[in-house]
């Protein structure tokens, strides 16, 4: 596998044996080169979805949102969808309903022949999207995350706990009503029910995708058992929404995962793609890339 430094060197001009200048690859050319190598290795279509949320100062359009469907439409145009799809994810997550639209579109085009590859992190709604694959490929360095909703950075489960604590305290100590009225006035009317709906939606969507796609071949009772165990772990109060679930954690909770390390050539291809995309994010104003092995790309930038 070309190291990070070797990939950077490919961007630099050099001299050939005759002393002539050889231009380096562009950032676009670097990504395209390694996407093509990965597709040639697997014989499958590849779409890479990369967000720059880990790069300091980049906070515009780094989440999964409804504008992403344009990027996926662009990437799928001209593909032979009978070859299936390997979707490479690197994302902090985002809007569950936008994720739902992406899942519906991808499965309409590729059926249930979709693998998700996580070279580093696919968190929150990114984890939900991974649950719509028939298998998730992860390395020792890969992580998924909890899918419990957040409201302004506040975990939904913490909000529920606060409301329930208020109810219990008022019932036992009526004199505390004034305190709790002040404390809960920061929330709009019916907010508690909106929070409950959001928690239920995350479980509903991830549960449906696991049942319909990842566990489609299992007996229904066995599938239900595994789905419930997974949702109990993913959509729960995990003390932090940024908790990292490793490959081993994902196997233990019941997800179907495969180790990238079990196929060294595949791992090298995947990590080369990953390095090429991160190099782009680190060395440009790009905040998000949705790109395929055919050279079709959709980029957003932050000035």
Looking at this protein, list some descriptive labels:
303 residues, seven-stranded mixed beta sheet, two-stranded antiparallel ribbon, 47% helix, globular
Short description:
With 303 residues, the protein is α/β, with parallel strands linked by helices.
Describe the structure.
Helices cover 47% and strands 16% of the residues. It folds into 2 domains: 1-145 and 255-303, no CATH class; 148-243, no CATH class. By secondary structure, it is an alpha/beta fold. It is globular and about 85 Å long. The protein has a 7-stranded mixed beta sheet, sandwiched between helices. A two-stranded antiparallel sheet has the order 1-2. A two-stranded parallel ribbon has the order 6-8. The mean pLDDT is 91. It has 11 helices and 13 strands.
Give the SSE map.
Blueprint: H1 4-9, E1 14-15, E2 21-22, H2 27-42, E3 45-51, H3 68-76, E4 85-90, H4 96-110, E5 114-118, E6 121-122, H5 125-130, E7 135-138, E8 143-144, E9 150-151, E10 154-155, H6 156-172, H7 177-184, H8 191-214, H9 220-234, H10 247-253, E11 257-259, H11 264-282, E12 286-292, E13 297-301
